[in-house]
Structures are given as structure tokens and as C-alpha cells.
């Protein structure tokens, strides 16, 4: 629909993803939103190879027309960054380092984000990252101990060690921080490592830990869906208009499909 001279857009219904607005949603709705937000980000980076250039809460809209199956829309994607093959590979490795919990991959990946590191000592940087990994993931084989602020702490280690980065990677890491803030405002216990695992399945990247994360993430999604179903039944019993319309239109527990409003050009909106 869009060309170099004509940009076709559509109206995006929703409210800005401010912390106050996100906290007002029901628990299962917040879990669903957290999963959708992470999926948008992973799809954008790992499948479509581009990065939203202006990610902030005002450009992330939440549509709660259906309070039990809210939608996430990212707007103002006209300002975006195309990832090169090298940048895409680097992004994949960085995310893999957390899923596989490998401090060395993390160090090597971040160190490679600039051609030359003039102001940092790689040995000290490696030591600090290793300490950070130990702090946030004790040696217990349980990924449930991964805490929410590991990405923020990683950036602090990068800054403290004066590690240099090319501009595309700075934009990437800023977007990751926005994503983490969005998800943590929804659900501080949301395990980003676990839910990102399915996006990292590729030849040579299968491991028992990755398979376990994928299975546990599936259980989490089933739990969220069950919470949404309970919410619909409760609202239907109490006479909620939203649930009455849902049951009349879709039938009990059927997931609502995409509407015409959600079919948009990928350079105008990302809608999940």
C-alpha cells in the first residue's frame, strides 16, 4: 500500500503504555501484554531485521477493548533502523548469551560492537560481567532466580568499563531498556529469558536449558490463557458488557482474530 511518495496509515486505537495505565490492568492481562511486547521485539529484531528508532511509552499503545486479550500496537515506525547481517548476528548472540547463561558470549558480543576498544580493558570487563552473571543467576540450574534488572545492570557494567559501541548498537540497547521497563511495569516476575527462548531455536543453538525454557514458557502461556478464561466467565456472570459481546460474537473461549484495523503496512505499524 505504501510507496516512496505515498504512505498509507491506519488509526491505531489504544492508550500510551504508561506505568499507571499498565498497573490498572488485571494480572492475567498484564502477563499477556508482557508476552506480546517481548514477541514484538523479538520478531522485529530476529525475523524482520529492523529496529524501531524511537521506542518510548508514548509510541506503544495498549488497546483494552477486550480487557482479557489486550492488543499492543507500536506507532511512529517510520523512524526505523535496518539491521545489517552482522548487526543481526550480533543481536542474536547477545540474546543467546542470556538464554544459555554464558558470560563469555555476552562479553565477546558486546566487545565486538565497536571496531576498536581504546578505553576499556577486556580482562576487567570480562571479570565484571562474570560477577554480574553470578549475582543474578546463582549456580542452581534454576532460571527462576533471574531477576528483573539484569539488563540495566549489564549496561552499568558497560558504562563503568568505558566500552565503546557503534551507533546502531546504542539504539539497540536503548530499545532493550525500554522493553525491559515496559515488561517489568506489567509483571516484575516475568521471565524474559524463558519467553525469548523460542525465538533463538536454530541449528547449533539447541540445548537442554533452551528446551526447558521453551516448555516452561508454554506452561506460562497456558496459565495466562486460563486466567483470561476465568475473567471472561466472571464478567459474563456479573453482566459485563464486554464479555457478553465477546461470547455473542466469538463463542466461549475462542481467541479473537485480527480485525481490519490491525492489518497495516509494516513500515507504519507493528501490531500484535
- What distance separates the N and C termini? 19 Å
Kindly report the oligomeric state of this protein. Answer: single chain
- The order of strands across the largest sheet is 1-3-4-6
Poorly predicted parts: 143-147, 251-272
| Total beta strands | 6
The biggest sheet, with number of strands, parallel, antiparallel or mixed sense and barrel status, is:
4 strands, antiparallel
What is the arithmetic mean of pLDDT?
Answer: 78
| Relative strand content | 5-15%
Write the layout of secondary structure elements.
Elements: E1 15-16, H1 19-23, H2 27-47, E2 50-52, E3 60-63, E4 71-74, E5 80-82, H3 85-99, H4 103-111, H5 122-136, H6 150-160, H7 167-186, H8 192-196, H9 208-238, H10 241-250, E6 270-271
Antiparallel strand pairs: 1-3, 2-5, 3-4, 4-6
Structure in words:
This protein has ten helices and six strands, in the order βααββββααααααααβ. The chain is an alpha+beta fold. It has a four-stranded antiparallel β-sheet, covered by helices on one side. Helix 2 crosses helix 9 and helix 5 packs antiparallel against helix 6. The radius of gyration is 20 Å and the shape is globular. 30% of the residues are buried.
Record keyword descriptors for this entry.
272 residues; alpha+beta; 4-stranded antiparallel sheet; two-stranded antiparallel sheet; disordered C terminus
Give a brief rundown of this model.
The chain has 272 residues and is of the alpha+beta class. Helices cover 52% and strands 7% of the residues.
Amino acid at each position: 500500500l505504501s510507496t516512496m511518495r505515498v504512505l498509507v496509515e491506519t488509526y491505531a486505537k489504544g492508550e500510551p503504555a504508561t506505568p499507571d495505565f499498565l498497573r490498572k490492568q488485571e494480572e492475567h492481562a498484564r502477563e499477556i501484554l508482557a508476552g506480546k511486547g517481548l514477541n514484538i521485539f523479538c520478531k522485529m529484531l530476529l525475523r524482520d531485521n529492523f529496529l524501531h528508532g524511537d521506542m518510548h511509552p508514548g509510541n506503544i499503545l495498549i488497546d483494552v477493548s477486550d480487557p482479557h486479550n489486550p492488543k499492543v500496537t507500536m506507532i511512529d515506525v517510520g523512524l526505523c533502523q535496518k539491521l545489517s547481517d552482522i548487526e543481526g548476528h550480533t543481536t542474536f548472540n547477545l540474546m543467546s548469551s542470556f538464554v544459555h547463561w554464558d558470560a563469555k558470549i555476552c562479553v565477546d558480543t558486546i566487545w565486538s560492537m565497536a571496531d576498536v576498544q581504546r578505553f576499556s580493558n577486556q580482562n576487567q570487563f570480562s571479570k565484571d560481567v562474570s560477577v554480574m552473571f553470578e549475582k543474578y543467576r546463582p549456580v542452581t540450574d534454576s532460571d527462576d532466580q533471574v531477576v528483573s534488572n539484569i539488563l540495566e545492570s549489564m549496561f552499568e557494567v558497560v558504562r563503568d568499563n568505558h566500552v565503546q559501541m557503534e551507533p546502531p548498537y546504542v539504539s539497540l540497547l536503548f530499545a532493550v531498556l525500554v522493553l525491559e521497563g515496559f515488561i517489568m511495569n506489567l509483571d516484575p516476575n516475568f521471565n524474559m529469558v524463558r519467553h525469548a527462548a523460542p525465538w533463538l531455536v536454530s541449528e547449533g543453538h539447541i540445548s537442554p536449558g533452551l528446551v526447558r525454557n521453551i516448555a516452561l514458557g508454554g506452561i506460562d502461556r497456558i496459565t495466562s490463557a486460563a486466567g483470561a478464561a476465568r475473567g471472561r466467565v466472571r464478567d459474563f456472570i456479573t453482566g459485563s458488557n464486554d464479555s457478553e459481546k465477546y461470547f455473542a460474537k466469538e463463542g466461549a473461549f475462542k481467541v479473537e482474530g485480527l480485525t481490519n484495523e490491525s492489518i497495516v503496512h509494516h513500515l507504519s505499524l507493528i501490531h500484535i
